[in-house]
């Protein structure tokens, strides 16, 4: 049986349907409601049902269905305009604009018909007495669409010159159209300026700032305003994600991803909306969507990923290369249909230009996690290997010589990429007979690159050095092999080997058989091995190991002291020795000395022209500074580490440093800069393949910093992206709870209260198992607030009751009182009381009385003055809220005596609030005067003008000589003056 039985039930059903998500289901319901309206035989019911149908069609992918109901409405108007009430008359003329743009979006409707319709619109608006502003705006849209720039500029000027009236689009939509035209004409900065009020939230509507945020993305990229572009994408995509009718804006976000190095994110967006590939109800937005699909797929192909599987139209699997061809064909076919209708080539030209755009940014980190663009089985593109030119042996020799010279230069000066340079030498020398020294150096560097697997190669290198007549370097190579052996855990074996090498190199050095550099290499390997023993030893054994290591490091310093000169290697030995002493000091518990020595080591590396070696020690120094509470030094060290590392920092290390710096800056309250470093940390963690570990941490922190700045939509996107990767096992359940908590705060600020409640309840469920229950209580309380805002009042009361019990158990009177007050307000709602409104009033009053009792009892036992003052303030606010609740319960349909009794009870409570706040003196002045004014209005309602006037004068007296800049004081004085005026009028009646 139908739920529509009369006009009122029809209107309720249409209102309910308007709240449903956009899409075919809502449209089908509107069609059904029209059929129900026709059964009522009320013309206005049919008119309203047709208007409802028009609206849901317009805000869906089935825009092409609008024309039939509008034609019927227009015929009804022409035949019997008296059947339309004022609202429906306005709506009919308003929808003319939808028809104009709707026709333009359908290529099968002839341009002549559109021009005729434009004239019809102008005629009817003139008859109805409307401004031509909306007509000129529609004319501008037609001219811009067909590419008639001169006419578009004339219509644009006329549009802006005409008076705004009730038929003009809302400010937000108008500004979007004006900014779009400026961007279309290449005036990006002017477009952003025009969109400013919409972006700032001054003007909004059902589709704004959604479309402005989307339209601003590419102009911002072109202007180089990358931070704004990132923010607009995160904020804007959240708005359009659930709105089926916004395929054009959705396309703008895909385009942004393709042009900013976020191809993987673009693929995720395509996967979220599979129907956008095939929905035909709005050809123009399908053209826009298919054009950016082609753009994204071509971009993937340019990156060597044309064979990757990608989301596409249902029914088959697609590679990027295949979808690029398909999407381009679809876009150009749709554009050709428009151009045939328009008699121009403008739409096709725009489509080609959009599809052929080059990237505007190599990579703009967004902070949100995306899956890898590359499929699991695809190999990453790699640069071509170094080759030796020429075909003969003689032609190859000069290239090999050059490679050898460069490799020796890099390794002798400890430059980054020395290992890679020797690898290039090795490849070039595969078919060349080299001298023993050359082969020794190749083997030595191959061994360094291989780590534990290269131990045998160190021995081979040693043999070749000996063959080349360099016994000292042979001993140094074997010492390097011994140290690598120690890294595998074989410390005793490594010590045995190094002891022999140590004796032999010292003897050789004493006989001038080798130089300082080779000797220092052996001594440093010995010191490193002894440092490994320190880390593995415990107790008394560690103390002995510490002493041995310290002595070994001292020998290195004694050997190289004053001998480094221009020898970078010797300078590096001295610097590393200082760092070893710093580490030993830290292990011995002398943190201050350790920090001093790490700083000295870092300075030595930088002074030697080797800043990249200082990165590790600045990072260690930052940790020690943090331990010592010296946040300024920690910040300096982390900044220095990032600066010293420069382009040589590996992605994992860069991510770690940025994340640590973000945490330090965040601790200092510098949320904006902290967010920048957290964003960098997330980006580099993704680059390092650590999205699920370090990347999740970085995103969690980034979300928190964005939340601190009030950037709630961006923060929500980032936190939602982080949450799937945050696990109790990897990150700790505290991180999971904090993320859910922050996300709940964001969603609450965004008005998504049901979702906020869900997040807060999930966090509370985890915190329920913690020994300390304060977080559990707070989250239960916050969840109750969200449930209440979401209209789930029964569930909200249950959550508040849970918080009540927790606050009571914790002895937190303030939390308990606030939850009791909140429950009282919930109880006053008639829908939530089985016993009717009176039963709700009784429950609400009982809860408020309980809150007062809890405050009073806590005051009786409080012995701390500050705690007492806080409780007094809480008691005052509770009396004040009790008064408001009682006053609100005095409904207009109650008996006069019942109303008077409620107002008297309310007056008694607010009078107590005045007295309580007065006890706090000037600290509670505004609270006291606010309560005094509330009491005055109650006195007036009870027909006691003299008492009301007395209270108003008391407020004015309280603010005599008060600071004029105090806004609260100005408001209180103004309200008191208003009260005096009202009661004087009462006296004269």
UniProtKB/TrEMBL annotation:
InterPro entries, from UniProt?
Answer: TPR-like_helical_dom_sf
Q: Where is the composition biased (Basic and acidic residues)?
A: 967-976
Question: What residue spans carry the region label Disordered?
Answer: 1-26, 965-989
| Sections of the chain in a coiled coil | none
Protein name (record): Tetratricopeptide repeat protein
Q: Which organism is it from?
A: Streptomyces caeruleatus
């Amino acid at each position: 049986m139908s739920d529509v039985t009369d006009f009122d039930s029809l209107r309720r059903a249409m209102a309910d349907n308007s709240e449903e998500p956009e899409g075919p289901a809502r449209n089908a319901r509107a069609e059904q409601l029209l059929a129900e309206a026709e059964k009522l035989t009320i013309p206005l019911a049919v008119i309203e049902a047709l208007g409802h149908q028009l609206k849901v069609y317009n805000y869906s992918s089935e825009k092409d269905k609008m024309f039939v109901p509008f034609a019927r409405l227009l015929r009804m108007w022409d035949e019997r305009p008296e059947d339309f009430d004022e609202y429906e008359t306005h709506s009919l003329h308003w929808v003319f604009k939808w028809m104009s743009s709707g026709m333009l979006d359908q290529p099968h409707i002839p341009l002549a018909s559109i021009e005729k319709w434009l004239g019809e619109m102008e005629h009817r608006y003139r008859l109805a007495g409307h401004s031509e502003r909306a007509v000129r705006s529609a004319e501008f849209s037609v001219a811009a669409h067909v590419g008639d720039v001169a006419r578009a500029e004339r219509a644009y000027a006329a549009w802006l010159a005409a008076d705004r009236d009730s038929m003009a689009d809302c400010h937000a939509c108008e500004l979007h159209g004006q900014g779009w035209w400026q961007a279309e004409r290449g005036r990006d900065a002017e477009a952003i300026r025009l969109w400013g009020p919409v972006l700032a939230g001054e003007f909004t509507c059902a589709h704004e700032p959604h479309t402005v945020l989307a339209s601003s993305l590419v102009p911002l990229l072109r202007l180089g305003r990358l931070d704004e572009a990132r923010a607009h994408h995160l904020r804007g995509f959240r708005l359009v994600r659930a709105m089926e009718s916004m395929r054009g804006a959705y396309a703008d976000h895909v385009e942004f991803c393709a042009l900013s190095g976020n191809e993987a994110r673009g693929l995720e967006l395509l996967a979220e909306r599979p129907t956008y590939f095939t929905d035909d109800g709005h050809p123009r937005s399908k053209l826009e969507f298919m054009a950016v699909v082609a753009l994204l797929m071509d971009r993937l192909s340019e990156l060597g990923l044309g064979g990757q599987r990608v989301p596409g139209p249902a029914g088959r699997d697609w590679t990027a290369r295949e979808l690029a061809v398909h999407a381009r064909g679809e876009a150009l076919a749709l554009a050709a249909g428009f151009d045939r209708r328009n008699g121009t080539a403008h739409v096709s030209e725009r489509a080609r230009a959009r599809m052929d755009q080059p990237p505007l940014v190599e990579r703009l980190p967004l902070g949100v996690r995306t899956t890898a663009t590359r499929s699991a089985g695809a190999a990453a593109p790699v640069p071509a290997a170094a080759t030796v030119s020429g075909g003969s042996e003689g032609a190859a020799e000069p290239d090999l010589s050059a490679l050898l010279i460069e490799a020796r230069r890099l390794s002798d000066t400890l430059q980054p990429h020395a290992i890679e340079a020797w690898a290039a030498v090795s490849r070039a020398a595969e078919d060349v007979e080299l001298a023993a020294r050359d082969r020794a150096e190749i083997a030595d560097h191959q061994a360094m690159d291989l780590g534990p697997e290269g131990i045998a190669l160190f021995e081979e290198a040693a043999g070749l050095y000996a063959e080349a007549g360099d016994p000292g370097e042979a001993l140094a190579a074997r010492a390097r092999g011994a140290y690598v052996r120690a890294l595998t855990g074989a410390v005793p074996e490594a010590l045995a080997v190094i002891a022999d090498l140590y004796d032999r190199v010292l003897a050789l050095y004493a006989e001038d058989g080798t130089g300082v550099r080779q000797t220092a290499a052996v001594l440093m390997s010995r010191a490193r091995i002894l440092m490994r023993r320190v880390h593995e030893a415990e107790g008394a054994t560690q103390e002995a190991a510490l002493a041995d290591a310290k002595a070994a490091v001292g020998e290195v310093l004694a050997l190289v002291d004053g001998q480094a000169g221009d020898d970078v290697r010797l300078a590096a030995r001295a610097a590393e020795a200082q760092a070893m002493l710093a580490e030993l000091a830290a292990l011995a518990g002398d943190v201050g000395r350790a920090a001093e020595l790490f700083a000295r080591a870092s300075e030595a590396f930088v002074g030697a022209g080797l800043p990249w070696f200082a990165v590790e020690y600045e990072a260690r120094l930052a940790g020690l500074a943090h331990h010592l509470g010296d946040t300024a030094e920690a910040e300096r060290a982390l900044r220095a580490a990032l600066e010293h590392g420069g382009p040589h920092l590996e992605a994992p290390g860069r991510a770690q440093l940025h994340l640590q710096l973000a945490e330090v800056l965040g601790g200092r309250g510098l949320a904006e800069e902290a967010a920048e470093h957290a964003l960098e940390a997330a980006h580099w963690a993704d680059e390092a393949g650590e999205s699920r570990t370090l990347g999740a941490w970085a995103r969690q922190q980034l979300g928190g910093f964005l939340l601190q700045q009030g950037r709630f939509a961006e923060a929500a996107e980032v936190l939602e992206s982080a949450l799937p990767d945050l696990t109790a096992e990897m990150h700790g359940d505290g991180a999971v709870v904090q993320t859910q908590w922050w996300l709940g705060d964001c969603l609450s600020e965004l008005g998504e209260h049901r979702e906020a409640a869900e997040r807060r309840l999930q966090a509370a469920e985890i915190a329920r198992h913690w020994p300390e229950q304060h977080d559990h209580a707070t989250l239960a309380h916050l969840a109750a607030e969200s449930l209440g805002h979401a209209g789930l009042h029964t569930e909200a009361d249950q959550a508040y009751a849970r918080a009540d019990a927790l606050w009571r158990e914790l002895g937190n009177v303030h939390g308990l009182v606030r939850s009791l007050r909140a429950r009282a307000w919930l109880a006053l709602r008639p829908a939530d009381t089985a016993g009717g409104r009176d039963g709700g009033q009784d429950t609400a009053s009982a809860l408020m009385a309980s809150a007062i009792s809890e405050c009073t009892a806590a005051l009786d036992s409080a012995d701390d003055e500050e705690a007492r003052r806080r409780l007094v303030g809480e008691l005052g606010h509770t009396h004040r809220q009790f008064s408001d609740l009682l006053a609100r319960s005095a409904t207009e349909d109650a008996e006069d005596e019942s109303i008077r009794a409620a107002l008297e009870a309310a007056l008694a409570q607010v009078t107590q609030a005045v007295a309580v706040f007065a006890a706090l003196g000037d600290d509670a002045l505004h609270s006291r005067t606010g309560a005094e004014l509330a009491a005055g209005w109650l006195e007036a309602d009870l027909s006691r003008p003299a008492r009301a006037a007395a209270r108003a004068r008391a407020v004015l007296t309280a603010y005599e000589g008060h600071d004029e800049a105090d806004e609260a004081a100005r408001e209180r004085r103004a309200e008191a003056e208003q009260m005096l005026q009202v009661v004087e009028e009462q006296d004269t009646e």
